[in-house]
Specification:
The complex is a heterodimer of chains A (164) and B (257). Chain A is mostly helical. Chain A has helices at 5-25, 33-52, 57-79, 83-91, 97-110, 118-149. Chain B is 69% helix and 8% strand. Classes of the chains: A mainly alpha (164), B mainly alpha (257). The interface between A and B is large, with 51 and 52 residues.
Chain lengths: 164, 257
C-alpha cells in the first residue's frame, strides 16, 4: 500500500492553521495558540492517514478527535488552561463541511417534483446526512470522553504519570 | 447574626453569581460552571446549591449548619464565545483556593478579566480567513479556490461583526455572514472561472459553524444536564439553519444548481 505522505503532511499543516484561526475567533489566551496549531495538525494527520488506509471517515474522525481529547489533559497542565479551551478549536478542522453542504443541497432537491433520479438523490442525501451526524457526534465524544474516563472533576487532579 | 457576616454573605453571593453568568455567557459547559462556583463557595466555608437555566443562574448559599444565608438569581448578558474569560476564571478559582485571596481581591481580578480586550479586529479577520482557506485545502481545494475561500470568509466575517455591533438577532447576524460569504464565492463561479464550486461554496461559510454550542451540548447531555444540553443543541441547529438559508438565497440569486 502506498501512502501519499506529502498530501497528508500538507493537509495536517493547513489544518493547524484552521485550528489556530478558530482559536483566535474564540479569543483563546495567546499562550495556547502554538498548542492549538499542534493539536489541529495532529488530529488531521491521524484522520487523513487513516483515510488513506481506507478506514471509514467516521472512525477516522473519531480517532483524530480522541487524540486531541487525550492531549488536552497534559496541555491543560502545561499551559494552565481548562482542557476544553485546547480541545474545541483543535477538533474544528475535523468538522465535515462538505458532507453537511451536500446534505443541505440534497434536502432542498428532495422538495422538488419526483422524477427518475429521485431515488438516487434520496439515498445520497441520507448517506451524507448520516455521515455528517455521526462525524459530529464522534468529534464531541472524542473530546468529552477522555475527561470522563479519568473520573475526575478537574484536569488539575489528573496525573498521567503516577508520582513515586 | 452580626453585620459583618451578613455583608460578607451578600458579597460572596453576588460574586459567585457574577462568576457563573460570565462563564455561562462565554460558552462554558454546565458542569464547569457548577464546579467553579462550588469550589469558590467551599473556599469561604459555605455550601452552594446551584441551578443553571439556559439564560440564568440561581444560587442558594448555606452555612455549614445548613442555614440558608443567601438567595439570588442573575440572568446572562448577550452570549458570545470568549475562552479568555473561561481560562482566566479557572485560574482565579484555583488561586482563591491556594493563596486564600480575599473576596475583594477575587472581585478585582474578575473585573480585570472581564475588561480584557479581544484580539485586534484585523488579526481576527485575517486569521479566520486563513482558517477558511485551510479548510478549503483540507477538503481538496486548489490555490484559486483557497483564495476565494479567504476572500469570502473575510467579507462574511466583516459583515457578521458589523451586524453584531448593530445588535441584530444572533441568527440574523449569522444569516448575513453566510449570505455575503456565499455571494462573494458565487460571483467568481458566475464569472465563468473554471473552479470546483462545491469546494468554494462549502468552505466559504464554514467560519460560521456553531462548534462551541455543538460540543457543549454533548458535554452537557453526557453529564446529565439534559435540559441545557437540548437547549444548546437546538441553538446550534438554528445557527446551522441560518447558514443554510444564507447559502440557499445566494444560490437562488445566481441561479446555480
Amino acid at each position: 500500500m502506498t501512502m501519499d505522505w506529502i498530501i497528508i503532511f500538507s493537509k495536517a499543516f493547513w489544518c493547524g492553521w484552521a485550528a489556530l484561526g478558530f482559536g483566535i475567533l474564540f479569543n483563546v489566551p495567546p499562550r495556547t495558540l502554538f498548542a492549538l496549531w499542534i493539536g489541529g495538525a495532529i488530529g488531521c494527520f491521524l484522520k487523513f492517514t487513516l483515510l488513506q488506509m481506507s478506514v471509514g471517515v467516521v472512525f477516522a474522525s473519531f480517532v483524530g478527535a480522541s487524540a486531541v481529547g487525550i492531549l488536552s489533559i497534559p496541555i491543560a497542565h502545561f499551559r494552565h488552561v481548562p482542557p476544553m479551551i485546547f480541545a474545541i478549536p483543535s477538533v474544528i478542522p475535523l468538522i465535515p463541511g462538505v458532507f453537511a453542504y451536500r446534505t443541505m443541497l440534497g434536502l432542498i432537491k428532495l422538495t422538488g417534483a419526483i422524477g427518475t433520479d429521485y431515488n438516487s438523490i434520496l439515498s445520497e442525501t441520507v448517506n451524507n446526512g448520516a455521515k455528517t451526524l455521526f462525524i459530529i457526534m464522534s468529534l464531541a465524544m472524542g473530546v468529552a470522553i477522555p475527561m470522563h474516563v479519568m473520573r475526575k472533576e478537574s484536569a488539575k487532579n489528573i496525573r498521567l504519570i503516577k508520582k513515586q | 447574626m452580626e453585620q459583618n457576616k451578613i455583608t460578607e454573605t451578600k458579597e460572596l453571593g453576588s460574586l459567585l453569581l457574577d462568576v457563573g453568568v460570565s462563564l455561562l455567557s462565554s460558552g462554558a459547559s454546565c458542569s464547569r460552571i457548577r464546579i467553579t462556583m462550588k469550589r469558590l463557595a467551599t473556599t469561604y466555608h459555605y455550601e452552594a446549591h446551584i441551578s443553571i437555566a439556559p439564560k440564568s443562574i440561581s444560587l442558594t448559599l448555606n452555612d455549614e449548619e445548613d442555614n440558608v444565608l443567601f438567595n439570588g438569581m442573575r440572568s446572562t448578558p448577550s452570549q458570545g464565545v470568549n475562552f479568555k474569560i473561561i481560562s482566566g476564571i479557572s485560574r482565579l478559582s484555583w488561586d482563591a483556593v491556594e493563596k486564600k485571596l480575599s473576596l475583594q481581591q477575587v472581585r478585582n481580578e474578575l473585573n480585570r478579566l472581564l475588561s480584557l480586550p479581544h484580539y485586534p479586529r484585523m488579526i481576527i479577520l485575517l486569521f479566520v480567513s486563513l482558517a477558511g482557506s485551510a479548510f478549503c485545502f483540507s477538503f481538496g481545494g486548489k490555490p484559486p479556490e483557497m483564495i476565494i475561500a479567504f476572500g469570502a470568509t473575510f467579507c462574511g466575517l466583516f459583515i457578521r461583526q458589523e451586524a453584531i455591533k448593530k445588535k441584530f438577532n444572533p441568527y440574523i447576524c449569522v444569516f448575513f455572514g453566510s449570505l455575503v460569504a456565499s455571494l462573494f464565492a458565487g460571483a467568481f463561479i458566475k464569472a465563468g472561472l473554471n473552479i470546483n464550486f462545491e469546494h468554494a461554496f462549502a468552505t466559504s461559510v464554514l467560519f460560521l459553524i456553531p462548534g462551541v454550542p455543538l460540543i457543549n451540548s454533548f458535554t452537557d447531555l453526557i453529564d446529565g444536564n439534559i435540559l441545557n444540553g437540548i437547549v444548546r443543541g437546538i441553538n446550534a441547529l438554528m445557527f446551522s439553519m441560518a447558514i443554510a438559508f444564507g447559502l440557499l438565497i445566494a444560490m437562488l440569486i445566481y441561479n446555480l444548481n
